[in-house]
Amino acid sequence: MGWINLSAIWKIVVFGALAGAGLPALFAIGLRALVMPGSRVQTAGADSDHVYGGNVLGLVIAGICFLIILAALGWGIYEVYQIGHPAPAKH
Amino acid sequence: MTVPYRISRSLTRGARNHGFRIGQVGSACMVSLAHGTNDAQKTMGVITLALIANGTLATGSQAPFWVILSCALAISLGTYLGGWRVIRTLGKGLVEIESPQGMAAESSSAAIILLSASFGYSLSTTHVATGSIVGTGLGKKGADVRWNVAGRMATAWLFTLPSAGIAGALAYWLAHGIGGSLGVIILLAILAGLSVAIYLRSRATKVDHSNVNDEWTGGVAPAEPEPAAAA
Predict the structure, then answer these.
(1) What is the mean pLDDT of residues B22-26?
(2) Confidence label for B231 from pLDDT (cuts 50, 70 and 90)
(3) How far is it, in rounded angstroms, from Cα B213 to Cα B207?
(4) CB of B84 within 8 A of CB of B208?
(5) Average pLDDT over residues B128-132
(6) Which chain A residues have a beta carbon less than 8 Å from that of B33?
(7) If contacts are CB pairs under 8 Å, which of residues 25-44 in chain B contact chain A?
(8) CA separation (Å) from B111 to A25, B23, B170?
């Protein structure tokens, strides 16, 4: 089984599932929090594409969700950058 | 894949699609980045390897800047020219996807490709994206996967492996047979001519932003709109 790197595969599966399914789910939670009933929803009909409902608590929850997603993206991009630009070895 | 749908069930259809479309800008960017870390490296690797084998570059040297630039330009041009047809096949033909599915498929593709790239695994963005799109089709209730389209794609993948090998052998045989710079120039002219011919052939049944989402009628090229219906 030398041609299969099992430790890499389980990492790809676990982190891939976390980032691939977790981040869109978090985005959906943020979106849902954003449209929580507030001042704007009364004027918006069922067909409206208004994303922002005007609820302060919802806005805060959504902000936290989106910040986590941005942080995850930033971390991922940093990791990719490190592959191409490894830190110089210390002498 | 159903998770984002369940969570966002209380949103109006318009708000959900609008919100996820904004999210898709981010997830599509990540797919592009992943594409660059993995797929783009192969072309650069092959050219650099050929240069090293030829003795042009010293053993162990990195890809020269002109190789990186020309590969980046070529891959962008190819995506720009052929992209709409692939978008239509994947986003309309294989499964009729909406923005939440699109974002879920893009996020998982980007995550898998970036992780694989970091472990040094070479894989194809197309394969991964196809897998995750089929996954969104299986996961969402009421969404159907067109298995005949999936089958045709799998068949194409089977054929491209030996075909690429044969084309490479023929190209080498031609360039080497004629010999020298002349052989390379003739080969380049033939390849450029073939590329233009393929491009012109694809323009006969054009797919672009205006018809990429038209009803799927069994082929990549959408049916011509009825003149009466346009009135």
Answers:
(1) 88
(2) very low
(3) 9
(4) yes
(5) 89
(6) 77, 80
(7) 26-27, 30, 33, 37
(8) 14, 15, 38
**DSSP-derived secondary structure for chain B:** -HHHHHHGGGS-HHHHHHHHHHHHHHHHHHHHHHHHHHHHHHHHHHHHHHHHHHTSS-TTPPPPHHHHHHHHHHHHHHHHHHHHHHHHIIIIIIB---HHHHHHHHHHHHHHHHHHHHTT----HHHHHHHHHHHHHHHSTT--B-HHHHHHHHHHHHHHHHHHHHHHHHHHHHHHHH-HHHHHHHHHHHHHHHHHHHHHHHHHT--STTTTTSPP-SSSSPPPPPHHHH-
Residues of B within 8 A of A15 (CB-CB) are: 111, 115
Entry pTM: 0.78
Tracing tokens 């190819």 back to the chain, one arrives at B78
Q: Is B97 on the interface with A (CB under 8 A)?
A: no
Say which of A20, A49, A69 has its CB closest to residue B18: A49
Residues A17-48 have pLDDT tens digits of 888 888 888 888 888 888 777 655 555 555 56
| A20/B4 CB distance under 8 A | no
Ordered by start, the domain boundaries in chain A are: 19-84
Are B30 and A73 inside 8 Å of each other by CB? yes
List the structure tokens of B73.
């330009």
Token pair listed for B51:
């240069």
Picking from A3, A15, A31 by the largest number of B CB atoms within 10 A of its own CB, the best residue to mutate is A31
Contact between A83 and B117 using a beta-carbon 8 Å cutoff? yes
